[in-house]
Amino acid sequence: MDSSPLSQPDPEAAPIVDPRLEPTPDYGTVGQGSDIAGGDSNRKRSALGRSRFVGPVLAVGAGVILAVLVANLGSAGAGRSRSAGVLSRSNASPNSRPIHSQGNSAPLDRLQPQKQAEALLELAVGRSGDAVDQISSRVDRWQGKLNWNPQIATLTTAALNSNDMRVRESGIEVELAAYGLAKNSASLEYLLTTAASSDHAQKIWALWALGLMGNRGVETARVIQVLTTHLKDSDEDSRHWAVAGLALVGSTETVTALLQVMHNDPAPAVREAAACALAQSGMYTSEQRRAIIPQLLAYTNDPSLDAQTHAWAFQALGDITHQRLPNDSTVWRNWYESAKNN
Question: Mean pLDDT of all residues in the chain?
Answer without folding.
Answer: 79
